[in-house]
């Protein structure tokens, strides 16, 4: 019987239900590792359940929510055939946004879209997400894997996620707490994180013609390994700061760069001044700059330049904050201060040259 007379099916349209079921079985062990006491039920329900009675300890609990993806960094993972790290990037993008207001991460859901379900590949993606959730202190309570044949190539995929946290109403951090004289503490990034990869890919792979397998002496590893370095997850480090000393605000350095993200938590009339000479960006940033002849302004408004998270604290709290972060293995330093420029402008500026 010809294919034209055979009855159509979901499988003939390119969707493999059995492969999807196999992927769910493979990912169960990783999701289980993220479980918190408040999580009810297991994987496979129509919705994830979280026991909100756990929030009764709060006087006025505010739920914080965020959603994000990892951008075109997924293309690097696809090209390298490495799928078990990109999930950590996803958790970082979501949960490090949530912690900025001082919220404790509670739970997360994910959405994985693929051209074809390869069960082991999907399980590896979920493994990375689960590992990220453990590092952020949250539970992975559900998700969706969608197969889109005809829209995506068999090896193509994308990931996205949404998360929820909680913070006491009178402890919400932000611009209203920031004061003149506050210190700005920078926390080192683990590399490029998950922003600016459209520029990075264009410069390093398209223009410079570098191979992901090429060993780059200045990086001490292959280009692909450098580009796939997972985004650092700061959630628990930031929460530790709020417990050990006074914190006025955090800023997650993502798309837009350091100055633009810091400006989001600076109140009207005040200005943040960051001294570049207080740190040296990792070699990968110089590689991007030189390979594409990228101007400094363009580089700084696209990439994190070595700083993944900023904390604004009273000047007298800076030493305690630095000690807390050092004890947690986070490289951090005082990078600047909050000033009153006298011209009523608001924002953040980078001054000086890198060390």
From TrEMBL:
The EC designation for this entry is 6.3.3.1
User: Cytoplasm as a keyword?
Assistant: yes
Q: Where does the record place the PurM-like N-terminal domain?
A: 59-167
Specify the domain of life of the species encoding this protein: Bacteria
Give the UniProt keywords, A-Z.
Answer: ATP-binding, Cytoplasm, Ligase, Nucleotide-binding, Purine biosynthesis
Name the chemical reaction catalysed here: 2-formamido-N(1)-(5-O-phospho-beta-D-ribosyl)acetamidine + ATP = 5-amino-1-(5-phospho-beta-D-ribosyl)imidazole + ADP + phosphate + H(+)
Biological or metabolic pathway of the protein: Purine metabolism; IMP biosynthesis via de novo pathway; 5-amino-1-(5-phospho-D-ribosyl)imidazole from N(2)-formyl-N(1)-(5-phospho-D-ribosyl)glycinamide: step 2/2
Q: What InterPro entries does the database record attribute to this sequence?
A: PurM-like_C_dom (IPR010918), PurM-like_C_sf (IPR036676), PurM-like_N (IPR016188), PurM-like_N_sf (IPR036921), PurM_cligase (IPR004733)
Q: Where in the cell is it found?
A: Cytoplasm
Task: Tell me where in this chain the PurM-like C-terminal domain is found.
Answer: 179-344
| Entry keyword Signal | no
Annotated family: Belongs to the AIR synthase family.
What protein am I looking at? Phosphoribosylformylglycinamidine cyclo-ligase
What organism is the protein native to? Answer: Streptomyces thermogriseus
